[in-house]
């Protein structure tokens, strides 16, 4: 149990450090998905470059599209699954922009459905806050185990 608490503690601290360096981008996206009507805005990625899936690389199942956003000419890229790309025009890709995370885009489906915060598509964003929140219970668990061990150890005189 002590090892488990230490692992969670160090993972939480590492993820928190990475998020601090990245200005809490993933955490902001996760919390914005709880109120998409307020924070999500429609935009279009005008594609300049398309990179198809390649069997010789790590990208075997997704297309990568690079271009700029119509609203403010922000240059960015997005990765979209091969099954989604087969059925649509890829010169302009519908995307979501998040009002307080300017440098990140999320794919927008044709029916404009916003993924729920804990959906599979949002897994990159909800895993981060879980590890950050795991710091507190793992720290309490570790301290509790240390306290119990200290009580069990007899004091020699």
Explain what you see.
The structure is a single chain. This protein has 157 residues and is an alpha+beta fold. It is 41% helix and 26% strand. It is built from six helices and five strands, in the order H-H-H-E-E-E-H-E-E-H-H. The chain has helices at 2-21, 25-32, 36-39, 82-85, 123-133, 135-152; strands at residues 40-51, 62-69, 75-81, 92-98, 101-107. It has a five-stranded antiparallel sheet with strand order 3-2-1-4-5. Strand 4 (92-98) and strand 5 form a beta hairpin. The radius of gyration is 21 Å and the shape is elongated.
Structural class per helix/strand content?
A: alpha+beta
Quantity of strands, as a count:
5
Straight-line distance between termini: 30 Å
Q: How would the global form be characterised?
A: elongated
Strand percent estimate:
25-35%
User: Strand sequence of the main sheet, in spatial order?
Assistant: 3-2-1-4-5
Instruction: Tell me roughly what share of residues is in helical segments.
Output: 40-55%
Enumerate how many helices there are, as a single number: 6
Q: Could you describe the largest sheet, including whether it forms a barrel?
A: 5 strands, antiparallel
Low-pLDDT sequence parts:
none
Order of helices and strands: HHHEEEHEEHH
| Gyration radius, in Å | 21 Å
Averaged pLDDT, please? 86
């Amino acid at each position: 149990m002590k090892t488990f608490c230490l692992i969670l503690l160090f993972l939480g601290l590492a993820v928190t450090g990475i998020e601090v360096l990245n200005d809490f981008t993933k955490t902001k996206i996760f919390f914005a998905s709880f109120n998409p009507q307020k924070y999500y805005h429609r935009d279009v990625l005008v594609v300049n470059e398309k990179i198809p899936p390649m069997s010789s690389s790590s990208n075997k199942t997704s297309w990568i599209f690079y271009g700029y956003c119509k609203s403010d000419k922000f240059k960015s890229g997005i990765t979209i699954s091969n099954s989604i790309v087969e059925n649509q025009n890829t010169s302009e890709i519908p995307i979501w922009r998040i009002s307080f995370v300017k440098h990140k885009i999320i794919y927008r489906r044709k029916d404009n459905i916003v993924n729920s915060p804990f959906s599979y598509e949002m897994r990159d964003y909800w895993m981060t806050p879980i590890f950050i929140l795991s710091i507190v219970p793992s720290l309490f668990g570790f301290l509790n185990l240390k306290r119990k061990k200290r009580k069990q150890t007899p004091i020699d005189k």
